[in-house]
Design goal:
Number of helices of chain A: 4
Largest sheet of chain A: none
Number of strands of chain B: 18
CATH class of chain A: Mainly Alpha
Distance between the termini of chain A: 17 Å
Radius of gyration of chain B: 27 Å
Number of strands of chain A: 0
Largest interface: A-B, 17 and 19 residues
Helix content of chain A: 55-70%
Distance between the termini of chain B: 51 Å
CATH superfamily of the largest domain in chain B: SGNH hydrolase
Number of helices of chain B: 23
Strand content of chain A: under 5%
Strand content of chain B: 15-25%
Strand order of the largest sheet of chain B: 16-17-15-14-13-12-11-18
Structural class of chain B: alpha/beta
CATH topology of the largest domain in chain B: Rossmann fold
Order of helices and strands of chain A: HHHH
CATH topology of chain A: Non-ribosomal Peptide Synthetase Peptidyl Carrier Protein, Chain A
Shape of chain A: globular
Radius of gyration of chain A: 11 Å
Oligomer: heterodimer
Helix content of chain B: 40-55%
Number of domains of chain B: 3
CATH superfamily of chain A: ACP-like
């Protein structure tokens, strides 16, 4: 799943997949602005057929947190 | 597009953008009072997939009126004006308002709309989403204040929106998708982003035909196979009396409805054609003897009935009609033929007759947008007749020894007019659509042409041609821009269907005469090469213009009007009439 999320982020933020690691955050990727974040949310929800809470959305502040929150949502 | 996931679409869009870089930009600006940034990649991708180098800009949030003043008229605006965001809690507030408070809002919005109409009046094409209350009112049995408010503003839109506005019926899109998947309330509260990606995909699909048509990408002809496509059965085996094409025979009703759709396309100026492996006599016999058929043999402008392969026949058809092969749609029941055409001529849109015949009329209906034209001009209605006359002229031509005798026998008359306001739409359309006999291929919008009509330093001359067989309508345009002591031929174009009669030479002579009469001697002109206008690369050379400089893609010319008029003689058998100078 981590690989899948990496691939999604690399496409959404138009960077190479190798540029994404656990700590990758909006500060590292110019495309990860508020619109980029919205695009990321839409993409993850589409891929995993899930729907995040508004709070979860604001907590996704780096790659690691994104993975955790996707896992958490999938469990529910 | 619909099967691509959003990240894949973003990536693919980016790659397409790079590959289309060298092409002319198609600029679209989205004005919205909500967040619609996710529309950008979706719309760019759908246009780039059609070969247009699209660039979509999202204007400043909630600043529609202000932003609409800073657009230039080459941009296509799309407007998302959401009533639910007129104020933060508008949907709920309005139910608490008094009558007079509501009227104030109605009036304010109407005034703003009028300003918007005025700001965008010179744009060629504007998309404005009709107001919708669906999301907030789907469960209200009796219309509430918000619904009534929305309806009254829609009525206003319908009445007052200028003709360059296309009012997009978003409710139809909600109906296709079912409306809940179109909205994301959560995102609306957090970021004012109301619509989902699925909605935007459907939205783009919905408006695409109109954008393609603005860039001359609409289809012009529909070419059909006969057996099991135009009727059920095989005429050569079953006989003309046993094939099904009306309610007289089982399953005939589906074909009859297809015929009615074709007839309506023909009426709009779309060319109907036959491309069938058959004995021509058999096909003709069906049309002659089956009185229950809606279509007549003459409704089909071109018939290629032989035993050659269909790809070659379609190439012949495009050539005979003098239209691009990419403007054909081909319908056949045979997977073999469809595949062959897809392989060999991928630019032709193919439609396969569905297995379930009851789906056949709907298949055509669903694809009518391929032929989208916004303004249907007089010429569109007359086009079928004109193509038919052209074929008659071709037949007559073979009876004459030399071409001049033949031309002289036609009684050709050329009518010219300058800045004729009644034909503004058609003049604009010709600058948009003409590819082959077009020296500079400059595309103009109605507003731009209107500005030239009103400007002292421009002449915009249009040309119509008629002969003893009929009129070809308005088929030529020349734009002259007068600079200090130089007249520049900005555009010179003619529709291909009138070529071969020396009309182009008469037209150029009349243009030069006009320039001369306005007191200008020095003329400049140019040829700008495109993928489609090679046939005119030496047009000016043949007319004694002098090449000033030339590159691979462009040639610039100079001429002296006085000298030209003494060197180039009028053509005796073409009568010239000026309707308006």
């Amino acid at each position: 799943m981590e690989e899948k999320i990496k691939k999604i982020m690399s496409d959404v933020f138009l960077v190479d997949i190798s540029e994404i690691n656990n700590n990758t955050s909006p500060e590292d990727l110019p495309q990860w602005d508020s619109i980029g974040h919205l695009n990321l949310i839409s993409s993850l929800e589409e891929e995993f057929s899930i729907k995040f809470d508004d709070e979860q959305i604001t907590q996704m502040l780096n790659f690691k947190l994104v993975v955790e929150i996707v896992k958490e949502t999938l469990k529910q | 597009m619909k099967d691509l996931k959003f990240p894949e679409l973003i990536r693919a869009n980016n790659e397409l953008g790079v590959s289309l870089q060298s092409k002319d930009k198609v600029r679209i600006t989205v004005l919205a009072n909500i967040t619609v940034n996710q529309l950008k990649p979706v719309l760019e991708f759908s246009l780039r997939s059609e070969g247009l180098n699209a660039s979509v800009e999202i204007a400043d949030y909630d600043n529609i009126l202000q932003e609409s003043t800073s657009l230039d008229n080459k941009e296509i605006p799309i407007i998302f004006w959401e009533l639910c965001n007129l104020t933060e809690n508008f949907v709920y507030e309005i139910e608490t308002f008094s009558e007079s408070q509501i009227s104030q809002f109605v009036e304010k919005t109407q005034n703003e709309l009028l300003l918007l109409f005025d700001n965008l009046k010179t744009s060629s094409l504007v998309f404005f989403n009709k107001f919708s209350h669906r999301f907030y009112t789907h469960s209200t049995l009796i219309p509430n204040a918000y619904e009534l408010f929305t309806d009254s503003l829609n009525e206003f839109l319908q009445k007052k929106a200028p003709s360059n506005f296309i009012l997009v019926d978003s409710d139809k899109i909600f109906e296709i998708k079912s409306f809940l998947p179109c909205f994301d309330v959560r995102n609306y509260y957090s970021t004012k982003s109301l619509y989902t990606i699925d909605f935007f995909k459907e939205y783009c699909f919905f408006i695409l035909p109109a954008i393609l048509s603005a860039f001359s990408r609409s289809k012009k002809a529909i070419i059909l196979d006969c057996d099991n496509t135009l009727w059920k059965g095989i005429v050569g085996e079953d006989g003309w009396e046993n094939i099904a094409l009306s309610e007289k025979n089982k399953d005939g009703i589906f074909y009859k409805q297809v015929h009615l759709i074709l007839k309506s396309l023909g009426k709009r100026g779309i060319i109907l054609g036959l491309c069938s492996k058959n004995n021509p006599q058999d096909v003709e016999e069906v049309f002659r003897k089956r009185k229950d058929m809606v279509l007549s043999y003459d409704d089909f402008i071109i018939k290629v009935v032989n035993w050659n392969d269909k790809a070659s026949n379609l190439e012949t058809i495009a050539k005979k009609l003098n239209i691009g092969i990419d403007s054909l749609v081909f319908v056949d029941d045979s997977p073999f033929e469809i595949n062959l055409v897809n392989e060999r001529l991928p630019m032709i849109k193919t439609l396969k007759v569905p297995q379930k015949l009851y789906d056949y009329p709907a298949l055509l209906m669903d694809n009518l947008s391929l032929f989208f034209t916004r303004a249907t001009t007089e010429e569109d209605f007359q086009r079928a007749r004109m193509y038919r006359e052209e074929i008659q002229r071709d037949e007559l031509k073979s009876n004459f020894q030399n071409i001049d005798d033949y031309l002289a026998s036609l009684d050709i008359e050329v009518a010219l007019a300058n800045k004729e306001i009644e034909v503004l739409e058609r003049v604009t359309q010709l600058t948009q659509k003409t590819n082959q006999f077009n020296l500079t291929t400059k595309r103009y919008l109605p507003g731009e042409i209107l500005n030239m009509y009103n400007a002292e330093d421009f002449d915009v001359i249009n040309l119509s041609v008629s002969d003893k067989y009929g009129s070809s309508g308005l088929t030529g345009v020349c734009i002259i821009h007068y600079r200090q002591n130089l007249a520049e031929i900005d555009s010179f174009l003619l529709s291909c269907r009138i070529l071969g009669r020396n009309v182009e030479n008469v037209f150029l002579r009349e243009v030069v005469k006009t320039i001369h009469e306005r007191g200008y001697n020095k003329i400049s002109a140019s040829y700008k090469k495109t993928a489609k206008n090679v046939q005119v690369e030496d047009f000016y050379d043949r007319n004694c213009f002098t090449v000033v400089n030339a590159t691979d893609t462009e040639k610039n010319y100079a001429a002296d009007s006085q000298q030209f008029l003494t060197e180039i003689f009028p053509i005796s058998y073409i009568k010239v009439v000026w309707k308006k100078k």
